[in-house]
Amino acid sequence: FGLSSIPYWSASCTQNNEQFGSAVDGAGDVNGDGYLDLIVGARGYDEDLVDIGAAYLFTNSSSGMNSAADWKVSSDQIYSGFGIPVAGLGDVNLDGFDDVAVGAHHYTDDQSLEGMVFAYRGSPIGLETTPKWTGGGNKADADFGFSIANAGDVDDDGSNDLLVGAPLYKRDERIVMGQASLYLGLQAGEVIIYNTFLPMLMTGQ
User: Does the predicted model carry a pTM greater than 0.85?
Assistant: First the structure.
């Protein structure tokens, strides 16, 4: 069939009932080193609050996948569902680094349990810990972010796009219809360029 009979790599969590692995996806190359990385969700992660959820990134290199996470983010709300979906998005802002998204379908913002999606930008030193983009369901109990996916380059502008599912989205606040929403990546004129500045080498005379 082509797949090996034993795993090449595996990782696990350290908390009881963290539900590490509730979602997994290829993260793409988030730091531009030429190796593909992995993102893993843990919907039951606890910190100061119970069940806030978390997402972890494991980077790859010439020596193989790292056994410890290089990046972790978590929610600030209990039972938000953060980490139930995770997705590698490809490069949505045309900066040369792949980006990721994490969904939290029970997150409360302006509306109760509307759901949110958080997108994190890649960079030369890996994923940023503060989301660069967030989107919400804008209706109570919509379950926005229950599913998320890399949509590819739908509009053929060179940047990847994001697809978000909201299965409990209601029409006229009464009838559950569900909704899928597509968010386009940046246009070429909006490219964010990363600049790396190296310290000047000073030598004595």
Answer: yes
